[in-house]
Amino acid sequence: MPHVVFVNTGVQIVCEPLSGRVKASVGHGWQRCVVQGPDGKPKSIPYVQWQLIGEKLFFAVDTTCGDPAKGYFCSAQALADDFSLSIARLLDSKGQVLSTLPSVDIVIRPASARAGEPKAVHLVVDFGNSRTGALLIESLGERGHMPQMIPFELTNRFQLDRWDKAGRSRRQGAARWFNSRSHWCQSPYLPPPKLEKEVYTVPSAKGWLNKPKPTTQRVFVTPRLFQDLSAVRMGQEAVDITEAMRVEAEVRTGVSSPKRYLWADDAAWLGGALWYMADPTDRAQTGNYACVLQGPLFRFLAEHDPDELELPPADLDEIPEADLVREHPLHPRHAPRLMMVAALYEILCQAYAYVNSAAYRELAGEQGRAREIGSLVLTYPSGMIPQERERFQHQARKAIEIFHATLGRSQRHQVALFLRIDEASAVHLTYLWSELHALERNTPLWFSTVGKPRRAGSGQHPALEVRIGCIDMGGGTSDLMIARYTHQAGYVDILRGEMLHRDGVSLAGDQLVKRLLEKLIVPKLADNLGMSPEVVEFLFGQEVPANARYRQQRIQWMNRLLVPLAQAYLQAAVEDDTTTVISHTDPTYVSPEIVRLLQRVIDQRYGAGNINVEQDVGLTFAPAMFEPIVYEVFNELLIDFCNRLVAYDVDIVLLAGQPTKLKQIQDLVQEYLPLPASRVIPLHNHYAGNWYPYQDDEGRNPGIIVDPKSAVVVGGAIDFLLVEGALGNITFQLTGINSEDPTRGNDYYWGILTPGTSKIQNSKLLFRPPEKGQKAAPVERKEFEVVSERVMIGRRLSPHEQAEATAVWCLRVDKKGQPGPIDVKVTIERRRATKDQPETFQLVAVKGTVAGKPACAEEGPEGNVFFTWRTLTTDSFFLDTGALDNIDHSGR
């Protein structure tokens, strides 16, 4: 049976199983497709690339229509029916026939030839600081029926392990939620070859009887083939490609999550270094499987990350020479926030290829019908500031524009972008929908069971109301959202929600991982391996001149040795498993190559034979040691959140996000809330119903929420479907904070963050909410002294100075490398939110001196005081530096 792919669906991969391994000069990665023609001469097929991995033969087929003289398979005008391709007598890199390979038949089918026009698939993405997941939504054609929601699975382009030995694409549950860590990498396919083409030119002379004499010439053109230009890899592939690198010096290839660095709009984060990228097949021939940042995507991505892109027309079928030159930036110091554009582009490209694959079409039905990406729906943290949300939207829009100009240029419509619902609200919606679905959408029945009569109208009975709070703990942020819900039954069931309170702080699962490493895992390693505190600090502690040259290795030890051990420990805590030994010598947790790398550096630094890391450390889950760490990290936060939940008289509290799987966190919440256990609902192992798209891979416990983080993306999908009218005659209306009347929203305590913490002391407050009965001033100003190079300004909702605060603004003083003190006074102006304008801050005055120069806030060479938004208190996160700054040596 031939492999069937659809025309104009980008690059499609097909897999042909082999009976054994091929021993020939096949090279690494994708190869250009050259076969031996009937005349015995080599014949190139420019729109096909191939590679061998183990006992599988892969072909990447560019299905784009175009001029065959420029390398395309067929023009749109000439394609009346199936285009059949038979690939036989494939040549290896030395020009020898690979005689043991079978002949492979591929059919490129016009999209409307069998089953009509392409069908829209909508992509809902929860892009997290730690993990990312997405849903593919496809309507069944009848409104009112639950559309299909299929979890998106990220393909490992390096390993191509999605395909089994029979050549079939299989589902991979582990790829549904993938690490958000993003690394630059060479584009997935070889660039299209330059092809010689005969073109006619304007006659310059006339022939016999004054007739034009046609002239021709041969020119070289580069067709726009293989336009999946992605330069970022995520998930397991990011691990694989960085593991393949053989770079000893410090190189910057990625960030722990692009969402953490949306504020980073220049090259300052790089500290003068250049971006590098993984090159797992050594395409640049450096020999170390890494190279300076380059590639076709950088035709469109400038270093300063402008919001207006220079993109080619979708119908252009050649790549101009001027564009090819821009593929090699001279000094690649691109703004880190640009990686969000590249990461979303990677997800769009993978989703587009997947929804048009044979595997997806078989799973979703209507196998003879092509697909298009109709919408990109993004959720966002509840505490995300307006500036950050706006930048998130800008980066997503640019990713869509690049997708539309490259791989998705054959789509009839550009992908629509929606940022409509925050993450905690999405969790609310998932819970509400699961409850209503269980009662066959009988809204009055649910409200009569759960609701309370509140807010009686004039001459009316009190209306039933349900107040729901949600604590959503992710990797980077913990969010709180409280809303009250009422309903109106009728021909259209209306579920009305009013948001009463919303907040978010940058304290979540990653901080728990950090403290678990600092207080338990690293000390345990040190004790059992015989490492002194000095050795531990050199390997895993703060970066100092002595260990700066090992930064690349330290980042790898952090993310591929220590963090996997912490994750395994946390999973053991979830399962209350106190017997399983968690060891860095077990390849289930840690790659042996990472352990060997650690041993090599130790031997170089301290001499061979002094410390042997190839021994078990006997690490097991110990509740008595773990519970104090959870308490240290989350107790004050949970007391603060629970006090607010009590103040708003909530009826139900939902716990979402990975950390809430821990019984220790569930117990703290239960302890601080005057609610029965049945009203505090951890979504982990909560029954949602068989409709829930994330289910156990083996079919066990149907309807159970296995991963509480999934409630966010599912809620985002439900919100999208309700707005689109795809879930029947029911509507959901959520109003309140930052929607109809922002002036009713949160009023924060603003102040200077204590360095090294996420706290604001009351003595350092700049702006406070008005006292009860006092009218809030629309504009406030505050003058204060600055003597340091950086001052972080943050906010908290709570009046208590021990409450967690979130960084929002950064006041940076640039001494321009000159010695001398900073003696500056600045004036900050705060304008409260109105119906038409969100809350704003600006620097309105500076005076004093900076290293002997007058303080100046103006742009230009004299400027030395800057005020910008920034959500990370330090230059880099510990996952990006490989440095732990508070390792506990007290027990040694």
Q: Could you explain the architecture of this structure?
A:
The chain is α+β, with helices and mostly antiparallel strands and 892 residues long. It has 4 domains: 3-109, Immunoglobulin-like (Sandwich), CATH 2.60.40; 119-190 and 226-418, Nucleotidyltransferase, domain 5, CATH 3.30.420; 456-691, Nucleotidyltransferase, domain 5, CATH 3.30.420; 747-796 and 805-879, no CATH class. It starts with a strand and ends in an 11-residue tail after the last helix.
Could you write a compact summary of the structure shown?
This protein has about 900 residues and is of the alpha+beta class.
Compile the SSE list and pairings:
Blueprint (H helix, E strand, L loop, with lengths): L2 E4 L4 E7 L13 E6 L5 E12 L2 E7 L20 E5 L16 E6 L9 E9 L3 E8 L9 E4 L25 E3 L2 E3 L10 E7 L13 E7 L10 E2 L1 H10 L9 E2 L20 E3 L11 E3 L28 H5 L12 H18 L2 H7 L6 E8 L7 H20 L10 E3 L4 H16 L4 H8 L1 E3 L8 E11 L4 E11 L4 E13 L3 H21 L3 H8 L10 H25 L16 H15 L16 H25 L4 E5 L6 H10 L7 E3 L27 H14 L6 E7 L12 E4 L12 E3 L11 E8 L3 E7 L9 E8 L8 E10 L8 E11 L2 E2 L10 E5 L8 H4 L11
Parallel strand pairs: 1-7, 8-19, 19-20, 22-25, 24-27, 25-26
Antiparallel strand pairs: 2-5, 3-4, 4-5, 6-7, 8-9, 9-10, 9-11, 12-15, 12-16, 13-14, 17-18, 21-22, 22-23, 23-24, 28-29, 28-31, 30-33, 31-32, 32-36, 33-34, 34-35
What structural keywords apply?
892 residues; alpha+beta; Immunoglobulin-like; Nucleotidyltransferase, domain 5; 7-stranded mixed beta sheet; 6-stranded mixed beta sheet
